Amino acid sequence: MNDKYFFEKGYSISTDKSLIDFDAVYNYLENESYWAKGVTAERLRKAIDNSMCFGIHKDGKQAGFARVVTDKATFAYLCDVFVLDAYRGIGLSKWLMQTIMEHPELKGLRRWSLATSDAHGLYQQFGFVPLSKPDNWMEIYTPYTQTQGDGK
């Protein structure tokens, strides 16, 4: 997919956070995603503030979204990637990934990571593979809960 095709169809991708429809992103992550259920609005706002964000827009409406947590020098963690149902099936997820991977501030990173339960095929097209040394990786995983909140 190329930029010209999508621009002609009225789509754009931007890293301008002022264009993000926070309510649309929050609604998707809280109610439709399998990975962010229980996230509070306050926590998501903080995550967006501290991440590099990519929004897909059509006619001023949010069509998709992705966050990259990065130092812009050595490492990036790709997360919260989605295209809303009404905009699926035309290649927007591939275009979004292409745009992220070709972004000048993210070129030449030593390591990218992500976690997915259902989109391996998409990410493999961009060079993602299972961890080469999974025994070297460790984690602390604390799922969101309704009582966890944000310190309230």
TrEMBL record:
InterPro entries noted in UniProt: Acetyltransferase_Butenolide (IPR053144), Acyl_CoA_acyltransferase (IPR016181), GNAT_dom (IPR000182)
GO molecular function, one term: acyltransferase activity, transferring groups other than amino-acyl groups
Sequence ranges assigned to domain N-acetyltransferase in this UniProt record: 11-143
Pfam families, per the entry: Acetyltransf_1 (PF00583)
Presence of the UniProt keyword Glycoprotein in the record: no
Domain of life: Bacteria
SUPFAM superfamilies the record matches: Acyl-CoA N-acyltransferases (Nat) (SSF55729)
Keyword annotations from UniProtKB, A to Z: Transferase
Annotated protein name in UniProt: GNAT family N-acetyltransferase
Gene source species: Mucilaginibacter ginsenosidivorans
Lineage: Bacteria, Pseudomonadati, Bacteroidota, Sphingobacteriia, Sphingobacteriales
